[in-house]
């Protein structure tokens, strides 16, 4: 059964305005694949209207990405949307400070938009943005649920420049909705809506090294102020953000390298992709031999690597009482085209052709993290999500046929 | 050109007697594949004769196996000859204390037979059997050379029971000659005759643990006497036996396990197969990805192992200034049929069908070392030698054809 929804459009610009959902129209698309010839419903609508159709319940696949960072056009999202073929851009003609990114198939919304308190409000109440009390989980749940059900929503905008809540923007239900931010897995109701979830976990050592690079060397902050700002965030981070790891289908941990003794530069990274077992439509990536424990230094007679080289590790583990499969990459690639050598030894990559991961990485070699495990695993997760999406869609089209047969 | 050699046979039994080489007959087998019709050479021989023909020079392929042990029907040789299909047995009707083993394709001779001093002689001169002065390298060289050239020899027999030199036995040139003992790579001339060489290196810790088991628990020797006997052998062993390692194409090192902290039982073994690079007709075995460095614990979700499990390591290394490829197995198999799981991840095994290593191991599961790396790597080396043999033979038959074409 298809679900079509008719919305009236206010005469003002849709930014700042609000859509009024008038009526849901249900019809069986098996009887007629075209729009119903009887348009009496439509004629009853006096104002300009938009009709959004979904092929049934849960048309939109919802992906949660938790990370401790500002939202915005993160590299991960650019890699993800690139896998689906289109470039992600902010909504055309809308609020220039919108946090949303839209591509042909994917819409990425930033959960900061569900802040219930703006910068001043948080200051007054003495809560951080990490604190659930600064966020409106009821609205987050309602809007994600509506989008998942194929209904557009008027989502608020949190303006990262002004620190204020701007008028809402219209979000149409996409094929894939990514909710990115601090709390995608915090609220149990929102969590339930997720078809797949990712936690991007930057270790304190790496966060610190990165902040030193950016805030001290580039922005002139003092070492003390950087330390203080990290320390200040820590209690709320540990209380509200970090525990979401346990719910993630994949955790990407970014850690200092173990290839350089006592490294504190944070330039060479060790990245772990912790993949939960038993997740529907998701088969963990493995190295060489599924289920065993392996370490692999590809550098040698076939692949020459500059110091400190590259080391992969693979094996089963447990993580928050869940069975997981971990693939780890320590070190960085000297040449991106050599990635094909690594790619060819990984299995369950969900590529559509030999070398697709390498091709994606080469396409975006200017993106941060392209020479290490962050870019590599983000690209792989993009492919896994595409596969998950295609499996869900295939399963849905198979289901009515099976029901008809029965 | 084929080389035929005519020998007269003395009327006494060949054991203890000696063959007299009368004449070498050269003929071009391309002109006539049958024996020359003119038998005037033969009629000139008045006594009964034996004719041994070889298809050219170096018909016999010579393998050297160095090991610190008594010779005899070692497990390694039984595994090796089994790969060629026939069981190895002592020469029929000969000296019951012969150290020789003969199968359809393979003859294993023990280099103790080239002792120039018997037990009493060594005692009188104060030299051990390890000392080159107790061995006749001229005779060793002459006889191995003769066999390699397709000529039978009357090889002495060192009687391990009496400690005396018994009358010689006739050795016919086999397809594959294995010279096994303390000094196969000691003399440069003998070394030059080897088509392939193996050094079986039992570490002192394991030797000690084994001797404790055998000499103390089974034969009632004291711990002190065992220690003393090992210590007494050490200087000559280090001076004359150990340095041969550098010439070996493959070294099998038997070491204590690293899976059990501070293990001194010597029951669980770590076995390294150190394979020299660049040896003609020999491509080193590798694990998963040639030229990289890998550790692999196959135990996990697919293969359950009892304590302490199994760990494989693989990678390039240098050994006595030579480039080598090392495959290591630590631990032991719980069930031999699970070997197929390990076998399927090794490459360049020179098997003729999938699972041949496992089949060979199952066939001889009662042999010592069948559940660990000693048996596993010995079996693999057997297959590599078969492959080497077949390549040499194929190369030889191709060579005259190419010469005829040119």
Describe this entry's structure for a reader:
2 copies of one chain form a homodimer. With 406 residues, chain A is an alpha+beta fold. Chain A contains 10 helices and 17 strands. In chain A, strands 5-6-9-4-10-11-12-16-15-14 form a 10-stranded mixed sheet. In chain A, strands 2-1-3 form a 3-stranded antiparallel sheet, with no helix packed on it. Chain A starts with a strand and ends with a helix. Chains A and B meet through β14 of A and β14 of B. β14 of chain A pairs antiparallel with β14 of chain B, so a sheet runs across the interface.
Can you give me a brief rundown of this structure?
The structure is a homodimer of 406-residue chains. In chain A, 29% of the residues lie in helices and 26% in strands.
Oligomer classification: homodimer
DSSP helix fraction of chain A: 25-40%
The secondary-structure class of chain A comes to alpha+beta
CATH topology of one domain in chain A: Rossmann fold
Q: Compute the number of helices of chain A.
A: 10
Keywords:
406 residues; transit peptide (chains A, B); 17 strands; PRK/URK (chains A, B); homodimer; disulfide bond (chains A, B); 3-stranded antiparallel beta sheet; protein homodimerization activity (chains A, B); P-loop_NTPase (chains A, B); 26% strand; alpha+beta
Topology of helices and strands:
The structure is a homodimer of 406-residue chains.
Chain A: E1 2-8, E2 20-27, H1 40-43, E3 49-54, E4 61-67, H2 75-83, E5 101-102, E6 106-110, H3 119-125, H4 137-148, E7 153-158, E8 165-171, E9 176-181, H5 188-193, E10 196-202, H6 204-218, H7 223-241, E11 250-256, E12 269-276, E13 286-287, E14 293-297, E15 310-319, E16 322-331, H8 339-343, E17 346-347, H9 356-363, H10 373-405
Parallel strand pairs in A: 4-9, 4-10, 6-9, 10-11
Antiparallel strand pairs in A: 1-2, 1-3, 5-6, 7-8, 11-12, 12-16, 13-17, 14-15, 15-16
